[in-house]
Amino acid sequence: MSRIVFCQRLNKEAEGLDFQFYPGDLGKRIFDNISKEAWAEWQKKQTMLINEKKLNMMDPAHRQLLEAEMVKYLFEGHDTVIDGYTPPSDDQ
């Protein structure tokens, strides 16, 4: 049976994550308050950010930057801006 959480990113009830994917208190906060759908959206953004900014996940400063972006995206309603990425427009 799936868990239902009130997703703070999507502002609605949705299916919760099966596991705590991120360590520590922040990981628990994500597990308790973020849906599978919002986490999947973040995963896409995170990959784009890592590639765009050429982040090295072995570098603590780079991990810190990514974590700050994740918190802003998941909990503060910010959209992650990726330099040089233009989302497909609906006009085409």
Automatic annotation (TrEMBL):
Could be a mediator in iron transactions between iron acquisition and iron-requiring processes, such as synthesis and/or repair of Fe-S clusters in biosynthetic enzymes. It comes from Vibrio stylophorae. Belongs to the Fe(2+)-trafficking protein family. Pfam families: Iron_traffic. PANTHER family: FE(2+)-TRAFFICKING PROTEIN-RELATED. This is Probable Fe(2+)-trafficking protein. The keyword Iron applies. Gene3D superfamilies: Fe(II) trafficking protein YggX (1.10.3880.10). Keywords: Iron.
